[in-house]
Amino acid sequence: MLSPSALLVLGAGSWGTALALALARRQYPIYLWGKDPAHVHTLQIQRCNQRFLPNAVFPDNLYAITDFVTLMPIVEDIIIVVPSHGFRETLKKIKPYITKNHRLCWATKGLEYQTGLLLHEVARAELGDNIPLAVLSGPSFAGEVAAALPTAVTIAAQDIENAHHVAQLFHQASFRAYTSNDMVGVQIGGAVKNVIAIAAGIADGLKMGANTRAALITRGLSEIVRLGIALGGQRETFMGLAGLGDLVLTCTDNQSRNRRFGYALAQGISLEAAQAQVGQVVEGIHAATITHQLAQQHGVEMPIVNHVNQVLTGQSTPLEAAQALLAREPKPEML
């Protein structure tokens, strides 16, 4: 593979910055775009993302920018790393400058709140069918990626050669990239695990113990598999990094925003106060509503997702939701 002349990363939050740092270790020129000029100016002056990743110093080949337009003719690969609610808006920004020479990958884990669409569906609706698309997902906390701690992810594309191309951009000793052709499964795994992580945080906040956490992860995986298959995903995807791997990480470590959010709710803190306490986007909030709707549309039983959604919409308290799950009738164990 020929080395790219430059790579453009759209999104200068913690995850976007971490991935820009990982790519910079491959010695490409990396341009990290942020929509907030004041934030980008701080990145330029301090040569780090002081707010999110203060210990990760930018190398000389990583540039923070506010204008990506002049770069579009010289970059081929564009990495989008914005929250799901800003994904379509970001596509609209780049749409006038996209050509058949560009490739697009995103590391956003979520679904479009207004429509319930998976993000590849949003991308196709905005950009058409001629731009190669890929998605990056897996167990990957931003702070550990920024610190070059060993991480493994999945990169999925309908065209497996495109997945291999994107994997080669990222692949290094501290960031292993595996490939898949299951974009649906990889995206469902990345989005719905956030809802299960809220449940795990609630259970831990209620002091329900390690046994409960393990049960939630296992039964949560079952729910993810059922929905993923109903939407066209492949069962084996959910046993890999983008499914089980990401789920275990997000449910068991306090670096997880969604887990911390659920824990705060279990302490009796309001939804708004819990979000403020986390201090960053909690993707599982919107994902719970969308996932619940998708489950109903496709006739998929997802009791954990259902009860998390009830908590988030004020229909039950965290304790009531936990008690309702425990009161369910016994049934055969199956994925």
Main sheet overview: 8 strands, mixed
Strand order of the largest sheet: 5-2-1-6-7-8-9-10
C-alpha Rg (nearest Å): 20 Å
Number of strands: 10
Name the shape in a single word: globular
In the CATH scheme, the class of the largest domain would be Alpha Beta
Helix-strand pattern? EHEHEEEEHEHEHEHEHHHHHHHH
CATH second-level architecture of the largest domain: 3-Layer(aba) Sandwich
The termini sit apart by: 40 Å
The CATH superfamily of the largest domain is known as NAD(P)-binding Rossmann-like Domain
Distinct helical segment count: 14
Helix-strand makeup class: alpha/beta
Indicate the mean pLDDT.
Answer: 96
Could you write a compact summary of the structure shown?
This protein has helices at about 15-25, 35-45, 85-95, 120-125, 140-145, 160-170, 185-205, 210-230, 240-250, 255-265, 270-280, 285-300, 305-310, 320-325; strands at about 5-10, 30-35, 50, 55, 60-65, 75-80, 105, 135, 150-155, 175-180. The chain is of the alpha/beta class.
